[in-house]
Amino acid sequence: MTTDTGDGQVGFADLELAPEILRALTALGYEEPTPIQQEAIPPMLAGHDLLGQAATGTGKTAAFALPLIQRIARDGKRGAGPSALVLTPTRELAIQVSEAVHRYGTDLGVRVLPVYGGQPIGRQLRELQRGADVVVATPGRALDHIARGTLKLDDLRTVVLDEADEMLDMGFAEDIDAILENMPEERQTVLFSATMPARIDSMARKHLSDPVRVRIEREAPAPGEAPRVRESAYVVSRNQKAAALGRLLDVESPEAAIVFCRTRDQVDQLSETLNGRGYRAEALHGGLSQEQRDRVMGRLRSGTADLLVATDVAARGIDVEHLTHVINYDVPSAPESYVHRIGRVGRAGREGVAITLAEPRESRMLKTIERVTGRKVPLEKVPSVADLRARRLELTRAALHESLLDDEDLERFRVVVETLGDEFDVMDVALAAVKLAHESSGAAFDEEEIPELAPRDDRDRGRDRGRDRGARGPRGPRRSSPGMTRLFVGAGRSAGIRPQDLVGAIAGESRLSGRDIGSIEIADRFSLVEVPDDAAEDVIHALRGASIKGRRAQVRREREPQR
User: Fold this and answer.
1) Of the residues 195, 240, 324, 344, which has the maximum number of CB atoms within 10 A of its CB?
2) How far is CA 469 from the centre of its chain?
3) Mean pLDDT by 10 residues, the chain (563 residues)
4) How far apart are CA 174 and CA 130, in angstroms?
5) What is the pTM of this model?
């Protein structure tokens, strides 16, 4: 069953929301519901299960939070446990959803509590004992509280699985199954996902009952119009990437952009390079404290900085309203990651740009992204020096045009023009002035051509795979992948440890997702797991107070073998 909203304009009042909620939405500046809100709110208010597919930034949080709040307020009965449980893949998203529920439900007195790893569990125990109407939790921490008996689900009426594809990627499938099996059979189950792979459909068939199906595509452009998010890719060598990025930034002139990198070192190096080229770039990665992170985001939102160079992990959960560009400094390792990244731009009808820099060997991953998303990512040529000069001349012309239109203080320069006009032609004087203005903007910078490369074919990839196999050495110790750190975990097969147990523990207690975790090797009494360099210390710290498969285990960096 799928709802049909028709062509008429629909307001929040038409969705039969309570006056208190309508007042809160008005105070927050909400004018009309987004398509996902129009389609999801009525069936949720009616108590139906719902399976929703919509990209990041389409208003999913309000789509499930508003009916949750209204049903809780109208029911009036408040038991020992929560009436609703929202499961999210990350602690950042748990906090974000919790804050939204609080804002929408303030006038109705709805109590909300975020529960996630990395937060003192004692405080969570006290807050759960006091009582909450809505608990927003990461799966691992929710299951932990259920096992302790501190999260009681007897009074639960609704469960929401938000960003379900992300949760499965992070290895939470078994945790989610265990949580749902502890819930009352008579409940409303709501599942939202940006993508809808077969395993999501399987989960829906297992846990949802005759759900309303809602699918919101990104609005297609009218014939002859450009798409809202302009996607493109550029094939460049690794040593030319920074120069290519600078060239693209010069041509694109983004209002605000996020540049995604794989590792902390790459973030630091690239942000330093960009600042050296005159951009206002800020680094964001797992090595920053929360205070430093807040300061960085404040500078980006206020316009003091216009570029955020970040790891996928650190950027998860952030939202910048005026973001115009997303740039993948490397091709994302999974199509779902690409979908989530570019979902940050082109929101609320605004135009956005998604750019990917690909090394020749990464072209196969680009094809996979195209196949999964069903969209062509055009391969384009990095702007030439001539293109850059033309763009900079256009920027100079635009700046002078604006000055001529708006500046009322030009008269004081007349004496300079008239004096020089006695000696030179006035056109020559104007040309010299434009030259000075143009060069003062850095127009003489970056005059090196960036060579055009072609994607590598399958034979080249075969040679790469052969080299990759040889890198391990015959029966020698396996080297860590570039940009990755191998961690030693003091539990293995004899403790019943499986790869998914390690993925779930790491993803549940740290900011990593399942896609961020590299190779896993499990021996009888220990395990080795690769994590990004910039997240290694965070993971070690996070797992010190956590349990893996019901037991505590030593976690540290793997010691280098003696030679």
Assistant:
1) 344
2) 32
3) 47 90 88 89 95 81 94 77 92 86 90 85 88 93 91 93 85 90 92 86 91 78 58 88 88 88 86 85 82 82 85 69 87 77 72 89 82 84 77 75 72 83 84 78 56 57 37 43 83 85 81 77 87 85 78 81 47
4) 29
5) 0.55
Please say whether the dihedral angle defined by the alpha carbons of residues 18, 22, 28 and 34, taken in this order, is positive or negative. positive
Residues 6+ apart with CB under 8 A from 278: 442, 445
Name the residue among 357, 354, 356, 283 with its Cα closest to residue 325.
Answer: 354
In tens, the pLDDT along 472-501 reads 333 344 556 667 889 999 888 888 888 888
User: Euclidean distance between the first and final Cα of the chain, in Å?
Assistant: 65
**CA proximity to 325, closest of 231, 392, 238, 466:** 231
Positive/negative CA dihedral, 543, 544, 548, 554: positive
Rounded CA gap, 272 and 80, in Å?
Answer: 53
What are the strands of the beta sheet with 281-284, ordered from one edge?
229-235, 352-358, 325-328, 257-261, 307-311, 281-284
Cβ neighbours for 340, distance < 8 A, ≥ 6 positions apart: 56, 166, 194
